[in-house]
Each structure stands twice: as C-alpha cells, then as structure tokens.
Amino acid sequence: MKKEEILKKLRDAGDYVSGQELCEFYxxxxxxxxxxxxxxxxxxxxxxxxxxxxxxxxxxxxEVIFSKTAIESYIDTTHIGKSIVFHKETGSTNxxxxxxxxxxxxxxxxxxxxxxxxxxxxxxxxxxxxxxKNIYMTLMLxxxxxxxxxxxxxLVMAIAVYEAVSELISKDCCGIKWPNDVVVNNKxxxxxxxxxxxxxxxxxxxxxxxxxxxxxxxxxxxxxxxxTSLFLETGKLTDRSRLTxxxxxxxxxxxxxxxxxxxxxxxxxxxxxxxxxxxxxxRVLDPKGTYDGIARGINEKGELIVERGDTGETVLxxxxxxxxxxxxxxxx
Length: 332
Description:
Layout: H1 3-13, H2 19-26, H3 30-42, E1 47-50, E2 54-57, H4 68-74, E3 84-87, H5 93-102, E4 110-113, E5 135-141, H6 153-165, E6 174-177, E7 181-184, E8 187-199, E9 202-212, H7 230-234, H8 240-261, H9 268-274, E10 281-285, E11 291-298, E12 304-308, E13 314-317, E14 323-326
Parallel strand pairs: 3-4
Antiparallel strand pairs: 1-2, 4-5, 5-9, 6-7, 7-8, 8-9, 10-11, 10-14, 11-12, 12-13
C-alpha cells in the first residue's frame, strides 16, 4: 500500500472512511494505515480523524498541493507517467529527463517541477517559470521508430494538453498554434519542446517537455499581450496535480495511435480540428524569405500545408526551419 492509494481512496469517498475499511481494502495493518495518514499530513494534507468514524480528507486543501504523491493519486495510465520524479525546484525538466534516460530509466518516465530556473522554449527562447503557479514537466520515451519520425511527438503532446485544458475551459476558446503552442483566446498557455538522442538509424530516447501556465495571475509586460493562464481565463485556481495526470491520460491514448503508424495519420484529423491557424492567413518567417499564405492543416508528418499568396503554390512547412505567425498578431 502506498500513500497515494490512501489519498485517492479518501478523496473519492468525500466523507469518512473507517480505518478498518482501509485495512481490509489494502490488506494491511492499522499501523500501516496510520503511518500513511501521517505521511500525507506531512505532505500538507489536512485529514480529520474521529473515533468510530475514521478518516476524512478536508477537500478545501487539495487544490493547492502539487507533489509526486498528489499526481500519482490521479494517474490512471498503464505506462505513461507511471514513474514520476518530482522536484520543488530544478534547472530544466528536459535536462533532468535526459539524465535519467542516460541512466537507463524506463520509457514513460515523467519529470515534474514546481519551479524551473533555466527553462527553455523553442529556438532557445527563455520560459518564465515562477514557483507555486504552473506545471513544468517532461516525458521521456524510447520510441521504436526512425529518428526522422520523432519530431511529431511535439504535436502528440500538444493534442494531449489541448484535451486536458479543454476539460476546464470551453473548447471554443482553445486551440493549437502550429506546431507546439496551445492557446486560449489567442494567447499562449502552453509551450512544448522536444529533444532527442539518436544515431542515424535508431533513437536512444526522446524527451518532450511542456510548460503550462496554470495559476499565474500576471505576466511580464513584454509577453502580457501574448500569454495567459487558466486562472486569468477562468478566475479559478486549478489543481495542478490533477491536470498533470490528465495530460498523461490523453497522451497515452494519442501515443498509442501514433505507435500504430509512427506518423500522425490517425491523429491528423483531430489535430487539424484543434489547429487555430487552419484556413486562416499566416505569415511564414522562413530564413530564405518571409511570405504570407493560407494554412490548410497538417499532413501525416506534421508539416504545415500552406498555400502561398504570392505564387499560389502549395508548400510544406517544416517546424524546425521556420516560425509561423498570424498576419494580425501572435495567433491570428
């Protein structure tokens, strides 16, 4: 019996659960149950105990606790995120995940941090990472596919984050800005960065990191017009532990479809429905020359299909080469 199992049992009950019931359910002694309760209290949970009634989790404190135990109590996957490494503070969860991969940790290991001091976005950009507000996580995988297929995992993660976030806010407000930003009301709420260690014909491991703005109340002036959080959009605090687990839930489902073909063939339609750029004007910031066009969605490789406005030709835009912006703003 693990303390996250006791936590889940108490949370699901919503009322008192007798010590005897917990003993019988998990096949352990009363002393083992008592020790698990004390560990949960040490983690910050408020648990009421009454003679002849048992234990009750005080629900008003669960939303603020972000920990390994809390995440594990929500995890419902069979493989993805079953092994969790949690840091109160770290430099970069991507760097941590790569180090664990080098040590032989299993595929599906998840690194989560309450705060990052050296977070990075796409193209080396920094990522604002305050403590106690957001989710910083990286999933390590060992996909059995050619290295040139791995970049699509960025889009698989984007779908998972979109699906988890849209459980908390209307889908009409949510979208994916190709290739790796999840947006709410045309402002960025999540960025994703995928990195890989590979040889020409095989992958050692892939790490896919996501930074989700959850309970942040404000942003620096320079990004205030382009960034938002769930708190700013809903006015409510979100349980970060549960949201982390929900992202893993959806990632496992979508990754299973990706594994069937090692491309986005079975996720292409779903992604295109979420794509905020689809059938809209975009500006492609290509090092060879900027041009405008209409985005028509992605192909099975995850490339953006763009009809150029100047030449009329259809071109495929690869995420590693360029950036795409809305003609009239960040997303639009």
